[in-house]
Design a protein that fits this description.
single chain; 88 residues; alpha+beta; 43% helix; globular
């Protein structure tokens, strides 16, 4: 996700709240937001869930609605999503 530099502090605060709440979900294995080295306005979130139902539960949660949809998505300039499948 790409954000404006002016939003950096607000993005960091929103990510911290979203990560903390998401990590409490029973189906969440890991939820780690990162900034890209040399580009602090680009954020990558590595998130892993037990199964597809856990992903759906995450996306339907109040904290996802508040912090992601109502927060991060409103500040984003660009977004790219990649879904990964474990091979080992």
């Amino acid at each position: 996700m790409k954000f404006r530099s002016d939003d950096r502090a607000r993005v960091a605060e929103t990510l911290a709240a979203l990560a903390q709440a998401s990590r409490q979900e029973p189906g969440c294995v890991t939820y780690i937001p990162h900034t890209v080295d040399g580009d602090p306005d680009t954020v990558v979130i590595y998130e892993q869930y037990r199964d597809h139902q856990a992903v759906d539960t995450h996306r339907a949660s109040p904290h996802f609605r508040d912090y992601a949809v109502g927060g991060l998505y409103q500040m984003m300039l660009d977004r790219q999503v990649e879904n990964l499948t474990s091979v080992a």
